[in-house]
Amino acid sequence: MERQSVIVSDPEILGGTPCFRGTRVPAGSLIDYLEAGDTLDEFLDNFPSVSREAAIAALEKAKALLISSR
Q: Which CATH number does the domain housing residue 55 bear?
């Protein structure tokens, strides 16, 4: 059985924008922070409702999707 995804999309939350489960933090915000050169710790400091485990799980899922699309 697959673990529950840390990223969810609910039309009632931010119009269905994919967010970290249990938060209103868009998943894309993590990518934006990293793309801007910020660290994971800086992201987590600014979004304390996102756990380190959730952020890492999201990055691992993104990596897996990129690798499987090769």
A: 1.10.10.10
